Amino acid sequence: MTALSPPTDEELTRRAQAGETAALGLLLARHQAPMRAVALSLLGYGPDAEDAVQDAALTALRRIGDVRDPAAVGAWLRAIVRNSCRMRLRAGRETPGLVGLDHLQARDQGPSCPSHPERVVDQHAMRDWIWDAMEQLPEPLRLVLMLRHFSGITSYREIAQTCEIPVGTVRSRLNQARTKVAQVLLTTAAQMHDDASRLTEDSRQEAEVTLEGARRGRQPREILQLWPAETELLGVLSTPGERCHPFPAMRRNREKGVTQRLRHVVASRSLTIWEMDVINPAGIPDPCPPTLAWVMVRRNRRVRTLRVVFPEPQR
Q1: pLDDT value at position 105?
Q2: DSSP calls for 51-116
Q3: Which residues contact 87 (CB under 8 A, 6 or more apart)?
Q4: Global pTM?
């Protein structure tokens, strides 16, 4: 019996572009050694080289649809590693851990924009696989990764303030998260995954209903059930030394005439981020900053904690 020939790079790339996650996993495994060789040649032995390879693997997941010459996918993967290494070598500049994800971060772009996070990931048919891998991270690692690469809270300092941890811990957790996600992706390529787009759309609808309830001064029963009495407000809007439920703070803002408009949603099973534009009435004393984010920790959909974060204006 004649042994079957292994699929070529071109075949695997076209299958991956069609949404076959197992094919992409095979591609990354096949080219891992040459990708690592590029990183070692530029960065030397050490954790930076390993991180650069993991970054490149995650970038490939999101950009496999950009490959114009499927037969030359190996050169494309090595170029991503090379770019990742060069970004790490640039002194005095803080760069995202996932090379090429700058265009996925959309503070001012709506869902109709081609570079909006959901559209970029969805069109490459890899979103569910990526999010399922992220769900396997411990909650602290998942939160910093979601903030850094899928929200408008992107600087290490902002993430440190949001999570109440040192900047050095943010860097450490991001490195751990990227490494673990890449490992999980390679070992789960052929498995079935949750519908991440459904999670995001459900969360978007929940956010819209919640905001409409706030405008009316009365939340529907289904929303109230998601905010039990033990839900706790954390951060700058909470009362120091006291345990606060979020609804009184929402009520105070509504009474001042402050309203919010949903800009962007990031959702996993246990972490949710709603990014908002803030509209202040004319002449209001002590107006709210123009943007804010709701960072929620959930259990069985019910909100355990809400932290309201005010990102710095984009420079």
Answers
A1: 33
A2: HHHHHHHHHHHHHGGG-S-GGGHHHHHHHHHHHHHHHHH-TT----SSTT-GGG--SS--TTSTTS
A3: 95, 99
A4: 0.60
Q: What is the pLDDT of residues 22-53, one digit of tens each?
A: 777 788 878 887 888 888 888 776 667 777 78
Q: Is residue 265 within 8 Å of 276, Cβ to Cβ? A: no
Q: Which residues contact 105 (CB under 8 A, 6 or more apart)?
A: 96, 117, 149, 150, 151, 152, 154
The percentage of residues in the chain with a pLDDT greater than 70, rounded to a whole number, is 77
Q: Hey, what amino acid is at 217?
A: G
DSSP string, 161-199: HHHTS-HHHHHHHHHHHHHHHHHHHHHSTTS----HHHH
Residue where the block lists tokens 């943010």: 170
8 A C-beta contact, residue 311 and residue 153: yes
Angle at 265 between CA 263 and CA 268, to 5 degrees: 170
Domains and CATH numbers, the chain: 9-89+99-193 (no CATH), 197-309 (3.10.450.50)
